[in-house]
Design goal:
Quinone Oxidoreductase, Chain A, domain 1, Rossmann fold, seven-stranded mixed β-sheet, six-stranded parallel β-sheet, 11 helices, binds zinc ion
Length: 371
Amino acid sequence: MAEKGVAAAFLGSRKPFELREFPIPDPGPGAAVVKMSLANVCGSDMHYWRGEMDMVKMGRPMPAALGHEGTGEIYRLGAGVTTDSMGDPLEEGDRVLFSYLYPDLQCPTCLKGYTFACPTRQHDRLGGLEEWPHFRGTFAQYYYLHPNHTMYKVPDHLTDDMVAGLNCALVQVISGLRRAGLSFNETVAIQGAGGLGVYAAAVAKAHGASKVIAIDGVDERIDLVRSFGADEIVDMREFETPEQRVDRVRELTDGLGADVTLELVGHPGVVTEGLQMTAPGGRYLEIGNINVGWHTEFDPSWIVFRSISIIGVAHYTSQDLRHALDFLKDNVSRLPFDRVLSHHFPLADINEAFAQQDSGRITRGALVPHA
Ligand SMILES: [Zn+2]
Ligand SMILES: [Zn+2]
């Protein structure tokens, strides 16, 4: 009888997850099975769970697999998979960082070099949990990597806590700031100091930003973003209105506004404010607003007369993910990567983890699949 593993079944908005058992798939040629060590609850998982992105309306087969951020070790390698994406030899038990994206590398979008926007990059996530290979979400004991995956071997001295946030939160801001062309001595404003915001502060400083300003209103998050390099905080408890926050960011940037502003809140209501705190000629990175159908109004003349570019960032390239691992390696002794995750829950307590993260009692939780 085939060995089995447990996966969390997502049954719809605000419905309790159920744990279900499925046979661990045999990896086909070019594929691999990862044994999950840690899976983070990302903001986008919360959007699904709250029904802000409704999987049923999106036509996704239910129950669905959820979770994409996390890390694990090689459980089985399919025929022909002998190395990671850098050519380093791989064997069972090696710890790996992987991407959940599969750009086909041959469609018109990929051929233009925009592999991060390949229309079929998420083909695997369209399948339901009941459908083979079942393990297509990280809230599970195993995760199936199809052929043409991207994965990198993780050195032993980097802990799972440090690595788990790389394949979504860290790599998203690396991809975004690369595409924004952030350069030496520019200023950066960060709307929202959650996981992405914290990493954004560090990556912006590594690009040579002269001043990084984080906007948030929760002590724990403010402390963490400071320790990741934020130079200034605009505390929303002190600067309560959008006008006050815009004025404060301009005051901190010689009256200009930030050269690059990152939207990491995930609510359309912050977009006008974000554009207004961006300098003439600046770039507005739109990353957080992933809720389809949530609208906002803004005055387009603002971006015309100030020549502001808006750059949407849904995903990243394989090279960006490599940079994320290198960034961690190079800065592990300097930055508190091990503090980004605030709480751990056994996979069996997934409902508790979601309830706590939803209520804001915890900042960023992670599930331990084999606890
Ligand atoms: Zn994510
Ligand atoms: Zn493509």
